[in-house]
C-alpha cells in the first residue's frame, strides 16, 4: 500500500511539474533569459596538439582536453546504443525531458532504495555547454528549459553528436573517439560491443568507472550495460553472451599510443611552444615528424632489451618495497582492494609489471600482479632472484609475503621475476643525406625519467671519438699503412692540463709497431695519443668543429685523443654522418610539416641535402679513407660481430669505453643511416670492470640496424679522384707528400 501511494504521488507530482515546466518554458522561450544556441550550432571545441610519425601514426597528444571531433555517422551503432541504453533509453521519444524517466527516478528515490537521476542526454548537453554542476533548483530549472530549447532547434542526431563529442570520459579525454584511443588504442569505428559498453559506463562517474584505475568496478558496470542492451533488444542474446565473455585489453596510461615515442613527442612539443607559444595546445595543429615507425620500434625495443640484458647480468637488488597482506581470502574484496592500493605507487613500465608476493619458497613464488591476475613462477622463472628467496637472505634483499616485486613475460609463455634497471641509455638515428631524425629513444622509460639522454646527455665519448682524431691525422699525411708504436708513454701535468699521465691500453697490453689501420681496429689508446701528440691538440680541437663538436667542451689536451671531452649521442650521430655521406654537414631536424585544423600546411621542412645545399666540411678523399678504416673495425676489430650478425659489408663504426667503464658507446652507420647508442648511469659510476662498448652498446646497435636496414640493398662507395691503392691500402698522395707530423715510432 505504501509503495502504491508513493507511485501515485510521484505520478501526480510529475504531472504538476510537467505542466509547470511547459508554462515556464512558454514564458521564457520568448525572453532573453536563456542563452543563445550559437555555441552548439557552431560547435568549435578545443582540439589538442597532436604529434605523428612521418607516416601519420599518432605518437603524442597535448592539451587540457584530448578530443577527436567525430561526425555522428562515424560512431558505431553498438556504441550509440550502449550510450542510449544506460543514459537515456527514451532519447528518440521525449522532447528533452523524459517525464516517465523522471517519475521512475522519483519513485526510486522516495522509496529510499538508491539515488537515481533523471537527466536526459539533451539535459546533459545543456549542462555541459551552458551550466555548472552545482545542485540548485534554479540551475536544474534552467537545464530543463535549455533542453526544451535545444530540442526545438537541433535534430536528435545533432544532439547525440554533441553529447558523444563533448562528454568527459576520464584520462583528460573528451568524447568517445578520444576515449576509444586512450583506453583501447583503437579508432572508435573499430570498437567491439564489449568495449562500447565499457566506454558507455564512463559518463556517470569517469573516476569511479575508469578501467585503468579500477578495472573490476568498470567491468561490473559494463556487464550491467550489456544486460540493458540485451533487454532493450539492441543486441541479441548471442551477441550478449559473446560480449560478456570477451577479454578486454585496456591500454591504460602506460601504453596510450601504438608506438613508444614519448621522447620524440615531448621534444616536438617543446619545439612547437617555441614556434607558436602556449596557445598551441588549443589550435588543433597536427605535427608530422621525421620519425619512421619501423626505426622507432626497433630503437625502443633494442635499447630496452640491451638494458635489461645488462641488468640481469648484474644481479637482483631486492624488492621495491613491502606491504602488509590482510589475513583474508585471496578472492575477497578486502584482499583485492588492499593489493590494488599497494600497487598504486608502483606503475608498470611497459611489459614490466609490479606485483605483491602472496607466497614464496626457494623454488616458487606466487604473486598478485597489477592486471589483477595471480601468477605462479617456478624454477628458471625465479632463478634471477634465487638468493633473495633463500631463508638466510638479508632482510632488505629477502622476498617474502608482502614483498613488492617485478615480473615480465617469459619467452614461450608465463612470467619471470625481474626488476626495474638503474642504468640508463639512449639510441638515436638520422638520415645521413638530410639530417632527418629517424628514431629517438632518450631513456629506458619516459615515465620514470623524462631527461632525454639522446639529445641532452653530455658524456665522454671515449674511443668512439677516435675517428675524428684519425681524420685530422689523414689530412696531416698519416695514412692507413703508416706505422705507429704501441708502446709505453708518460706525460707531465703541463702536457695533459692536469696530473702527470701514463696512458694505457684498455687490455693493458702493448704490441709494439703496427699500422694505423690495425691500431684503430683494435682501439689502441697509446697509438691514438701518439697521433694526437704528433699533429697537436690545438689542431685537433679546431678540426673537430667541422663535425659540430663544441671546442670549449673538448679542451686541447692529449687526453682528448681518448675522448676525454664531452658530446651528446645526437652530436655523435651527426659527426659520423659526415663519414657516411662522403664529407657533408647535415643539420638535424625533427619536424617535417605542420598542418592546421582545416588541413592547411603551415610549415614544410626544406633541409639542405647532400645532393642540394649541404655544406662540404670534409675532403671527400679523407671521408673515403676514414670510412675504410671504420669498416675495418666491423670486419676484424672491436666490432667484428656486427658483420657476422648483419651479414652486410657496408657497415662501419667504432666502439667506445671511457675510464673505469663509466660510459659505453657504439657509433656507426650504413651510407643511408647513422645510429649511436650510449649506456651509462645518470650519476656516473662504473658499469662493471668487464663492461665495454663492444659488449654492451654494440649488440643494441646491431639489433636496431637489423630492422632499420631490412630490405635496403648494400651500398658500395665510389672511390674519389685522388685516392690510390699503394701496397694494398688506400693512400692520398697529396696529403702524404705534404706530411706534417713528427716520428710516430718512438
Say what the CATH topology of the largest domain is.
Beta-lactamase
- Give the number of domains: 3
Task: Tell me what the CATH architecture of the largest domain is.
Answer: 3-Layer(aba) Sandwich
Low-confidence stretches: 1-14, 23-32, 112-116
The proportion of residues forming helix, as a percent range, comes to 25-40%
SS elements, strand count: 24
Query: Which superfamily, in CATH terms, is the homologous superfamily of the largest domain?
Result: DD-peptidase/beta-lactamase superfamily
CATH C-level category of the largest domain: Alpha Beta
Q: Class by helix and strand content?
A: alpha+beta
Mean pLDDT score: 89
Query: Largest sheet at a glance?
Result: 6 strands, antiparallel
Envelope shape: globular
What gap, in angstroms, lies between the N and C termini?
Answer: 114 Å
Please tell me how large the radius of gyration is. 33 Å
Strand residues, percent: 5-15%
* Total number of helices: 26
Protein name: Penicillin-binding protein 1A
EC number: 2.4.99.28, 3.4.16.4
InterPro entries: Beta-lactam/transpept-like, Glyco_trans_51, Glycosyltr_51/Transpeptidase, Lysozyme-like_dom_sf, NA-bd_OB-fold, PBP_transglycosylase, PCB_OB, PCN-bd_Tpept
Domain Penicillin-binding protein transpeptidase: 427-677
